[in-house]
Amino acid sequence: MAKIKKGDLVQVITGGKAERGGDRGKQGKVLKVYTDTNRVLVEGVNRVTKHTKAGQTERGTNTGGIEIVEAPIHASNVAVVDPSTKKPTRVGYRIETVERDGRERQVRIRVAKTSGKDLA
């Protein structure tokens, strides 16, 4: 089970200092989670140059060229940001009993370990 979900605000905790071209310390929103390879796609982090082959669309416009896109990074290299302190934290769970449709159900709620605040 992944502790990082789409839409989370995460911070890169490893991978070279930002002033030397790395991404450590940068924060961004998770765009996609790849559970099979345990990687995440983070907005504005791990940007790579991609060369696409020239071609034509149905309308006749030329495609291709050089574009800069985000590449996935391993989930262990990012940490979820605590909403109250804006610093990286670990993720824990709290189990609450909620009544729905006349039946009691147990719901797992993600919480920040440092402050105890709920994560969205």
From TrEMBL:
CDD domains: KOW_RPL26. Gene3D superfamilies: 2.30.30.30. Residues 20-43 form the KOW domain. One of its GO terms (biological process) is translation. Residues 45-118 form the Large ribosomal subunit protein uL24 C-terminal domain. One of its GO terms (molecular function) is structural constituent of ribosome. GO terms for cellular component: ribonucleoprotein complex; ribosome. InterPro entries: KOW (IPR005824), Rib_uL2_dom2 (IPR014722), Ribosomal_uL24 (IPR003256), Ribosomal_uL24_C (IPR057264), Ribosomal_uL24_KOW (IPR041988), Translation_prot_SH3-like_sf (IPR008991). Pfam families: KOW, ribosomal_L24. Keywords: Ribonucleoprotein, Ribosomal protein, RNA-binding, rRNA-binding. One of two assembly initiator proteins, it binds directly to the 5'-end of the 23S rRNA, where it nucleates assembly of the 50S subunit. HAMAP family: Ribosomal_uL24_B. Part of the 50S ribosomal subunit. Belongs to the universal ribosomal protein uL24 family. This is Large ribosomal subunit protein uL24. It comes from Arthrobacter alpinus. The lineage of its organism: Bacteria, Bacillati, Actinomycetota, Actinomycetes, Micrococcales.
